[in-house]
Amino acid sequence: MKRSRTVAALLLGGFSPILVACGEDGPEAVTVYPSVEACTAEKAAGDCAAAFAAARDEHLASAPRFASRAACEAEMGDGACVPGDENRGSSVGNVFVPALVGFMIGRSLTGSYAQPVYFDRQGYARSGATQIGRLPAVPERKDESRQSSGGGGGSIGSFNSYYRSGDATAGKSFTVPTAGRSAGFGSTGASRGFSGS
Amino acid sequence: MERIRTPPRPHWQAKLDEIGFPFHTDADGTPYWDESAHWRFSLAEIETLEAAAEEVYRLCEEAVDHVVARRLYEAVGIPRWAAPAIEASWAGRDGLDMALYARFDFAWDGKGGPPKALELNAETPTSLYETAVAQWCWLQDVHPEADQFNSLEEALAERWQARMRTSPGLASRTEAVHFTCLMPHPEDEATIAYLQTLALRAGMTTKAMPIQDIRYDDATGCFLDDRGLPIRHLMKLYPWDWMIRETTGRELVTAAAQGRIRLIEPAWKMVMASKGLFALLWELNPGHPNLLPTALDRAGFPAGGTVVAKPLLGREGRNVSIATLDAAGFPIGQPIAETGGPYSDDGWVYQAFTPLAEADGNHAVFGVWMAGGTPCGLGVREDRALITGNTSRFVPHRIAGT
């Protein structure tokens, strides 16, 4: 066979990483939304619950774990974490995990798959299948800092909201260091238009 | 091969919207995605295209090596001062400076002669999502039993995994891959979001940001993201030859040469993406069945021959003209076809004209996708005109016996 067994499809205009299955010819082809409520507004409640359950199970099985809420929030952002044992049926135990903010679901020849995604404090999107490592610390440049509202520019209906931090830092302030100067990239393309070939 | 007219799926626009491809119709209302027809290929034809792509890609790698070894950068339209980044990345091409992807454009009518490579879009190839996802979903809806030359998604996922294996920082998630393009630009943003999806699935830590927001820190020689964190791996849907001529282009050359930042695609792709490479390919492999006579000088073509002139660093079929030349290499009469555009300053490459597959007044270019050096997919672009551009229609395909 010369074709892929699966493809991942993107939902434009959505909030953070929302992917949908293509076609509507099978019970596994479930459209996925950022919340159960958003999903059930358009789809059968049972389908929504099943899709979320699959991603949540994967999340609980593989989410990064932190010994305290403070340790979790230090990495993932203020208010971004929940106790692992709040989730019924979880084997995570007495730890804190980042809240699930979205997930990918793709279509395969035989069904679908789901994988959780969340954002950390710095706006990095991480998939849920792996342990998170340590990222380099933000350089301290408080004297030149400016305040910016969180969210990484992502907004509902905006195309530039792909995989940029959403719920985890929305409405929170954080310090943006202004180290360095603008690299100046993009000026040629902005004057000429599209860049592909 | 055969172009088959087919009724579009009911609500095909909605189906494409649903899978994240709202770019199916151009601003003037004409379809860009065109499923009123599809191309049917035999497996033997697909394997012929596949073998030609694998072979010409190997020749392209040899030609890049030839340019780097002899420092022939100016001949392919690249300034000499970019050499440190190109040479460092070429030395690391089996490791972190590996290629991700590229797309050949082939002309072939399937009537006995071999496919001819027109060019290799080695750095910022377009129509990725249409090829990998939109036509896959079309096939699944319309011909679920049929096959398609399209393992592009799996092949790209494998490239991300290979990159992780070569980088302890990526493998341990202490380093992230930043994904960037001009923003706002919905279509490019969708393309990098798709590539980011595949990197996420491979387990990488990723972040998307506008290319305009990248910063440079003179104290450390590092490029920084919008939160002030150093960028170690940068997937950019934006050409190297533009970046190096922008404000911190020389700093980028130095940082890449010294390994402080790894770009995807790596700097050596600048050489591979130059249309001038095809003149060198012909010089090194004269008469190769999958190549067309190509030169930087138009006087070398036989009188009365039809020749295509393209900018060395052109894109999207802009500033291309087709004309019949006299013995001195000057056009006889008006060009047969030509396009306008902004790429008229950096030199030209001349290539013997060869007809494209033609059916119902449509001229089709066959785009063969590469993941690293491996052919892994096909996207067909059609136009009523002889020159394929960024508004040429994307038409799906399937593989089926005759």
From TrEMBL, chain A:
Keywords: Signal. InterPro entries: Biofilm_formation_YgiB. It comes from Azospirillum isscasi. The lineage of its organism: Bacteria, Pseudomonadati, Pseudomonadota, Alphaproteobacteria, Rhodospirillales. Residues 131-156, 173-197 are annotated as: Disordered. Pfam families: DUF1190. This is DUF1190 domain-containing protein. Residues 1-21 form the signal peptide.
Automatic annotation (TrEMBL), chain B:
Signal peptide: none annotated. Residues 12-399 form the Glutathionylspermidine synthase pre-ATP-grasp-like domain. Keywords: ATP-binding, Ligase, Magnesium, Metal-binding, Nucleotide-binding. Pfam families: GSP_synth. This is Glutathionylspermidine synthase family protein. It comes from Azospirillum isscasi. The lineage of its organism: Bacteria, Pseudomonadati, Pseudomonadota, Alphaproteobacteria, Rhodospirillales.
